[in-house]
Amino acid sequence: MRVAFSACLLGDPVRYDGGAKPTPEVLELARRVEAVRFCPECAAGLPVPRPPAERVGGRVVCSDGIDVTEAFARGAQASADRIVRSGVSLVVLKAKSPSCGLNVIYDGTYSGKLVSGRGVLAERLEKEGICMVCEDTVKACKPSVEHPVAIVLGTGLGHLKN
Ligand code: SF4
């Protein structure tokens, strides 16, 4: 089974601050599947490190006031195209990101407040009908008992157990 992951969840140092955000649960899931990694902001050609960005209405704006809406859209499209071409069964997304966030994102005020919403890539993937889960869903599952892939696809654990 092929599953795509936000690259920072797999330990790739691609975040705005040059860091990564791997978790044991996501790494365990990645070991059990054929993992495909993506980072839409890197796909857009944005540097690492880079200023943090948040969605502000229909725009994406960096903390320094630079509008990066077009770059985020370009990177999201490139990553979405790659994910679709890869034929993955599921995408695991980094929480709260202006690109990868699935359920909540920062509200655009740089105050740490969250609002309901999706990142730019998650919006694209939703239009493509791709199955998506947030990293928090993976963290909440015990892989050997209620594997997120099995939950999403409605299948038994079967081949994912070992
Ligand atoms: Fe991680 Fe997505 Fe941000 Fe890239 S764009 S660093 S994959 S959350």
From TrEMBL:
Family note: Belongs to the PNP/MTAP phosphorylase family.
Function: The purine nucleoside phosphorylases catalyze the phosphorolytic breakdown of the N-glycosidic bond in the beta-(deoxy)ribonucleoside molecules, with the formation of the corresponding free purine bases and pentose-1-phosphate. Cleaves guanosine, inosine, 2'-deoxyguanosine and 2'-deoxyinosine.
Protein name: purine-nucleoside phosphorylase
Organism: Thermophilibacter immobilis
Phylogenetic placement of the source organism: Bacteria, Bacillati, Actinomycetota, Coriobacteriia, Coriobacteriales
Residue range from the parent sequence: 1 to 162 of 396
